[in-house]
Write a structure and sequence with these properties.
The protein has helices at residues 42-45, 47-53, 57-65; strands spanning 10-17, 22-27, 31-34. By secondary structure, it is an alpha+beta fold. The chain has a single domain (10-65), classed as Rhinovirus 14, subunit 4 (Irregular), CATH 4.10.80. The chain has a 3-stranded mixed sheet with strand order 2-1-3, with no helix packed on it. β1 (10-17) and β2 (22-27) form a beta hairpin. The longest helix has 9 residues, at 57-65. The N and C termini lie far apart (65 Å).
Amino acid sequence: MKKGIHPKYNDKATISCTCGAQFEVGSTVPNMRVEVCSNCHPVYTGAKMRNVEKGGRVERFRKKYGVTKKG
C-alpha cells in the first residue's frame, strides 16, 4: 500500500440521527448526521407491518366480492 493516499480511519466515529439516537462506529469521517436510522425507520420499528395486518389486495378483493378461500 502506498503511504499518504489513504484517509485516516477513526475507531470511534459518531453517527447522529434526527430522532436523537447516536451510534459509535468505525469510519473515515469523524462525525456524521443522518435523517433516518434503525431506531426511527418504519421497516425496523414495525410501522410498516401494521399496514400489512390490515390486509392486502387479495384480502380486500375477497371481502368486497364475498369470495372465500378454497381448501
